[in-house]
Amino acid sequence: MQFAKRLDPLQFNVFADMDRAKAKAVAAGKQLIDLSLGSSDLPAATHVVDAIAQSLKDPSTHGYLLFRGTKDFRVAAANWYTQKFGVLVDPETEVLPLIGSQEGTAHLPLAVLNPGDFALLQDPGYPSHMGGVYLASGQIYPMPLRAENEFLPVFEEVPAAVLAQARMMVLSYPHNPTTALAPLSFFQKAVAFCQKHNLVLVHDFPYADLVFENTKAHSILEADPEKTVSIEFFTLSKSYSMGGFRIGYAIGNAEVIQALRLVKAAVDFNQYGGILNGAIAALNGPQEGVQAAVATFRLRRDAFINALHRIGWQVPTPVATMYVWAKLPEPWTTNSIEFCTQLVETTGVAASPGAGFGNMGEGYIRFALVHEPPILEAAVERIAKFLSP
Ligand SMILES: Cc1ncc(COP(=O)(O)O)c(C=O)c1O
């Protein structure tokens, strides 16, 4: 059988290789400590689960929802944005429910790019941003994120020839995998750049709440309150520990929302109404669970970073997200895949190789803080033995 060429770039998947290495380690009797996946291990709040359970018994939730979801959901999403970021949102034209935010960011290039058009993506960045561009037969221009620039791209570096054929830029802060935060002034620059070059500005915002210090994550819409070029993707996966429920939404420019809706109308009939009801309960209800999740990830971060420092691995303390982005020590600085493969096969500790997030990720690895402190500390003990056998 012959398959579409657009699948070719999707075949290269470092994370599938890591899955094989993990399976090999388990088969060899290693006890796995899996820090390679950013899937929260925390439960969704009881009032959220209750709202979904009640919906299940209500037959009026059992049919198709069609493309815009429910008005109650769109209003809850719009109000949440206004309360949190002071941005006014029209629930009728500026909100679109999604089956997880990844579904939305991966479908959006189909609405924006013609074959061969460029999308400007962060390097390193979230792999599904690349996947969506490949599926739309677009081209990727990787904007390098360097530690010396606080992992923010330098827009002036994008060549004029690329810009002439570029239609969209994708940003995401707090950033997976580097954990960087972006100041509002950077977002203002990004909005002005996209306005000037007629680009759709996409902001993927899953870690909106996972910020640890006395600072906050900004919405791109604070820098573009008129929504001239911007669309932002939020998910309930992280803040509300609802990853498995697959619920997120896009908020932004009404024309871009309408274009994404057209793509989705050809693809899906929306998330189940009961899950939307759970999301409404999460967005409108008590927020203590969000604060508790942030406190949990802060504790884990401190335990893990302190343990790494004790063994002499000087990794910066992340101010946001559920990850640690660690520069590899010698002699591993150019081979994160080999490091992660050997680490898991020798010790059972699984991490994500930086190279899987783009060329600029090489030389780093990402740990996801998805276990409690004693397990994280046990992982560091095993890492210490691996580094100094
Ligand atoms: C940057 C980024 N976008 C999207 C997602 C996935 O979000 P969702 O569960 O809503 O699809 C993740 C999950 O780790 C992520 O890190």
Distance between the termini: 48 Å
- Catalogue the unreliable spans: none
Helix content: 40-55%
Number of discrete domains: 2
Number of helices: 15
Description:
This protein has helices at residues 8-11, 14-27, 46-56, 71-85, 101-112, 127-135, 160-164, 184-196, 220-223, 236-239, 254-267, 273-284, 288-310, 336-347, 373-387; strands at 33-34, 95-98, 118-123, 139-144, 166-171, 200-204, 230-235, 248-252, 323-327, 349-350, 352-353, 364-368. Strands 2-8-7-6-5-3-4 form a seven-stranded mixed beta sheet, with helices on both faces. A three-stranded antiparallel beta sheet has the order 9-12-11. A two-stranded parallel ribbon has the order 1-10. The model has no long low-confidence stretch (mean pLDDT 95). The chain has two domains: 5-43 and 289-387, Alpha-Beta Complex (Aspartate Aminotransferase, domain 1), CATH 3.90.1150.10; 62-284, Type I PLP-dependent aspartate aminotransferase-like (Major domain) (Aspartate Aminotransferase, domain 2, 3-Layer(aba) Sandwich), CATH 3.40.640.10. Helices cover 43% and strands 14% of the residues. Helix 2 runs parallel beside helix 14 (336-347), helix 3 packs antiparallel against helix 12 (273-284) and helix 5 (101-112) runs parallel beside helix 6 (127-135). Bound molecules: pyridoxal-5'-phosphate. Pyridoxal-5'-phosphate binds next to helix 5.
